[in-house]
Amino acid sequence: MEIFLQQVINGLSIGAVIALMALGVTLIFGLTGLVMFAHGELLVIGGFLAWFVTIQLSSSFWLGLLFAIVAVGLIGLALERGVFRFTFDSPINGFIVSLGLIIVLQHLLVELSPVGASIVDLPAPITKVFDLGGARIPGTRVLVVGATLVVVAVMLWVIYRSGHGRALRASAIDRDTAALMGIPVRRYIMVVFLVGSLLAGLGGALMIGLFPIDPFIGGRFVIKAFAVALAGGLGNPLGAILAAFGLGLAEAMGTQYFQPEWSESYAFIVMIIILLVRPRGLLTGLQGPAAR
Amino acid sequence: MRNRMQVKTFARNQVAGAFSGPRRWTTAERIVVIVGVGVFILLIPEFTTSRHLFLATVTGTTAIAVYGLAVIFGQAGILSLAHAGLWAIGAYTGAIFFREFGWSYWAVLPLGIIFASIAAALLAYPALRIRGHFFLIATFGFGELVRIVLENGGGFESGRRLGLIVQGGMPDFFGIGLQSANSIYYVTVAYLVIAIFAVYLIRRSGFGATMRAVRENEDLSESIGIRIARTKILAFTMSGAFTGAAGVHYAFLLKHIEPSLFGAQDGIELALMVLLGGAVPLLGPLLGASVVLFVPELPFAENPNFVQIAYGLALILLILLLPRGLVSGLKALYVEARDILIRLFASVREPPPQAPRSEHP
């Protein structure tokens, strides 16, 4: 039972990182039809920046966290302004550009990182350990899950309950009509890139609180993010978040109770089965403006 | 001064005998390019180091797989990131049957082709239901799944992370003492020529036209009786055959294969080669593969990080500025330069046939 609880919190914390990624990925796709594979690199950059600020500049994890969020957000915004806005007419080109960006960002990170391509690690930012029914639950994991839940709740409230969210959803359904109704679609695209990148920065900073990272793990996470975004229906934020926590739990349970070496493949198996059985996702998603 | 239109018409008439049209690639030029590239490829063993010759052989093998991908992307408009996985299926079929059952190179080659084709057909099944991005992401997942399966190994203990050793499998091709690097290179070139010729035939066939119809408008082609699902599956199967053949040859060439050679990242790299060279021009995939594999060898490339960064940036710029690939870009550049030259010569050689009209703007 203790082990089970332990794995639940492990799964939820991994799911939290995936959820933060998936939210950005699915929002960007919903609005622009762009499959943004370089999002994983933003996550890794967030992790490295948090590590750098915490270890090298200050000694406060919170400062590192804040810096990572802001810096990655600005990087994402710069990418939208500098690169991706030229590809919105042809999302397949945008996708290829994002593949090129993976290469650029990855090696730029290796080049600029003071430790090169090696793994970086942080001491746990919260040393307190909670005791829950015999299970020892590290405070960091509670922080990761809690912070993610708060951020996700705010995001969902904005998307589904506020006027801006309504405009955003309208733009995702039909960009042209929304623009005719006076919604500044271009500006929303910019904001979505910014917000998606902020979330990736947060995810990266939280991730390095959980486990050591190296510059090349971004790909693994972006695949998972897309797997859950697909499972939830691309362009559907709520579905993506639910699927992300589901995948995190499935991986943790698989590692504990089945063969651990296969746990990495769950995301792909689930994804392929969902595509075969319900190509539009478990909860209805959008095909995206360009795929229609 | 004559106006531009007149000049153009005039130049066009002047060269009508030699060139079919100033905006197009003529037969004569095509032959020159093909012969030039062919001679260059055949002469490579004469002036390279053995290291570069090996790299050229690897490039040729890779290019065969890239042609498989280019057929479906250029003709049917389906991009796949799963081809590294299909490649792996070819390579591992070859390696396992060679090692465990003692099959010869010639016996495993068709087997690798068949297995990769079957896997491609199975993979194409989702294409019946999903389009565009969804399919792309699914192929990505497939590629990564293949790698995970390979890493965890089946009953072949040695096939796990450490990889498989395929030592001494290269046969004596046609008994001409072919264990040397040169001869393996020439055999690879022969394969490559067969692959390019096959692509050429496919493009000219009725099936090629069917694929292009599906690419241009799926609904419309369905309405005139084209079976979309069958076309896509067949196209994918064909593509898998190329990739499987490349895989078998690759395994015997490298003599050691491991799962990390065939991950999702390598699937992306294959796609980049297609996009870089261009999927439609016949020499596009070859150029794409050569650029990707040879750029890290350039003399200024001392820091591998900078090579990768420059390469990524080049890719981004290429997609933004030359979305149809390097070959098309070079061709357009050449045609432009040629037309300017023709125009110059035409105006120097021949005086205008009549006084120009008044120069209204």
Give me the Rg of chain B, rounded.
Answer: 24 Å
What would the CATH topology of chain A be?
ABC transporter involved in vitamin B12 uptake, BtuC
CATH fold node name of chain B: ABC transporter involved in vitamin B12 uptake, BtuC
> Secondary-structure element order of chain A, as H and E?
HHHHEEHHHHHHH
What characterizes the major β-sheet of chain B?
2 strands, antiparallel
Strand content of chain A: under 5%
Beta content of chain B = under 5%
Low-pLDDT ranges of chain B: 10-22
Share of helical residues of chain B: over 70%
Note the run of SSEs of chain B as H and E.
HHHHHHEHHHHEHHHH
Overall pLDDT metric of chain B: 79
Q: What is the 3D shape of chain A?
A: globular
Domains of chain B (count): 1
N- to C-terminal separation of chain B? 13 Å
Q: How is the secondary structure organized here?
A:
The complex is a heterodimer of chains A (292) and B (361).
Chain A: H1 2-32, H2 39-57, H3 61-82, H4 91-112, E1 129-132, E2 135-138, H5 139-161, H6 163-173, H7 175-180, H8 185-210, H9 218-231, H10 237-257, H11 266-277
Antiparallel strand pairs in A: 1-2
Helix pairs in contact in A: 1-5, 1-8, 1-9, 1-10, 2-3, 2-4, 2-8, 2-9, 3-8, 5-6, 5-8, 9-10, 9-11
Chain B: H1 4-14, H2 27-47, H3 50-76, H4 83-101, H5 105-124, H6 132-152, E1 164-165, H7 181-204, H8 206-216, H9 218-223, H10 228-254, E2 256-257, H11 264-277, H12 284-294, H13 304-321, H14 326-349
Antiparallel strand pairs in B: 1-2
Helix pairs in contact in B: 1-14, 3-7, 3-8, 3-10, 3-11, 3-12, 4-5, 4-6, 4-10, 5-10, 8-10, 11-12
